[in-house]
Amino acid sequence: MQPDEKTLARLKPGCICKGIKLIRLIEAIENGADTYEKIARQTGIGGGPCKGKRCGQKVKELLQKKVNNPAASGQDIISELGNRKKRPR
Ligand code: FES
Fold it and tell me: Residue 83 above 60 pLDDT?
């Protein structure tokens, strides 16, 4: 993982409600978590006011990227997220 990508993942939110950064979600997936429940257990996400609506969607996207490319590393996932187009406001 490139240092700047890792820094970016440390800054990006993973679970806004709980203040957990994206890097924690990616590390959980790299450590074998393959469901929302497993990732939530490892990281503590999902217990906030939105009850996992926002971070659940993020986890779904991360897991889908991993399913589509099982050999993807955390760096690959971060790079793909960085290339994702922003939603129009
Ligand atoms: S963003 Fe994770 S519980 Fe709300």
Answer: no
C-beta of residue 77 within 8 angstroms of C-beta of residue 65: yes
**pLDDT tens digits, 17-56:** 999 999 999 999 999 999 999 999 999 999 999 999 999 9
* Ligand 1 atom at shortest distance from the alpha carbon of 47: 3
> In which element (H, E) is residue 12 found?
none
Give burial (CB, 10 Å; 0-12/13-18/19+) of 85: exposed
CA–centroid distance, residue 12 to ligand 1 (Å): 14
Residue 45, ligand 1, Cβ within 6 A: yes
Task: Tell me, using a 6 A CB cutoff, whether residue 1 lines ligand 1.
Answer: no
Tell whether ligand 1 has an atom less than 6 A from the beta carbon of residue 24: no
Beta strand extents in the chain (DSSP E only): 13-15, 20-21
